[in-house]
Amino acid sequence: MVILSKNNHIMSNNTIVTAYLKELEAEYTASHKCLERIPVSLFSYKPHPKSMELGYLTLLVADIPLWVTMMIQEGEIDLAKYKRFEAKTTEEMVARFEENFNGAKKALGNVTDEDLNAPFSLKSQGQVLFTQSKMEGVGSTINHWVHHRGQLTVYMRLNEIPVPSIYGPSADDRTF
C-alpha cells in the first residue's frame, strides 16, 4: 500500500508502484491542459481519411487512466464490453478524465509491487488477444497515454488550438 505524506509526497517501499504513481502525476497536468482546450464542435475533425476523429482521440486521452484501474482491479479488459463514454461538453470530458485519473491513482495506491506480477489479459468478445503481467500492462498503458496525447497536440496545432507546455515551453506559451 502507498501512503501520501502531509505534503502529498508518495511514501512507499513499493518502488515500481511508486514510480508508476510519479509518472502518472508527471503526465497529469499536460493531459488536463490539452483536454480542457478541445471544443466539442471539433470532435468530428480528421486530418486524413485514415486518421481517427479528434473526439475519439480526446476520449482516449481522458479514458486511458481508467485502463490502469481496470487492469489492476479486474485483471482484464474486454474490448467488446468496454463502454465508450460520450461527452456532450468539454467540461464533461475533463470531468471524465479527472475521475479516471483519480481512480488510477487509487488503484495503484492499493497494490504492492508483488501484486503487479499477476496476469492481465486483453480480450475481445471473451477471446484472449494477449496476456502479460499487470506491471508490463501499466507501463505500456502509460506510454500509450502519452503517445495519444502527442497525437492530440498535432490535431490541436492543425486546428489553431494553442498547444500547452508539455515537457517545456511550446510555441504557444513561450515568454522569451
What would you say this structure looks like, in words?
- The chain has 176 residues and is mainly alpha-helical.
- It has a single domain, classed as dinb family like domain (Four Helix Bundle (Hemerythrin (Met), subunit A)), CATH 1.20.120.
- It has four helices and five strands.
- It has helices spanning 15-35, 54-74, 90-109, 134-158, and strands at residues 3-4, 10-11, 76-78, 119-124, 127-133.
- Strands 3-4-5 form a three-stranded mixed sheet.
- α1 (15-35) packs antiparallel against α2 (54-74).
- The longest helix has 25 residues, at 134-158.
How is this structure best summarized?
With 176 residues, the chain is mainly alpha-helical. It is 49% helix and 11% strand. Helix 2 runs parallel beside helix 3 (90-109).
Major sheet size, sense and barrel closure: 3 strands, mixed
Supply the helix-strand structural class.
Answer: mainly alpha
In what range is the share of β-strand residues? Answer: 5-15%
CATH class group = Mainly Alpha
User: How many structural domains are formed by the residues?
Assistant: 1
User: Low-confidence spans: pLDDT under 50, at least 5 residues?
Assistant: none
Mass-distribution shape: globular
Could you tell me the mean pLDDT?
A: 92
Secondary structure: number of strands:
5
Q: What integer value in Å does the Rg equal?
A: 17 Å
Helix content: 40-55%
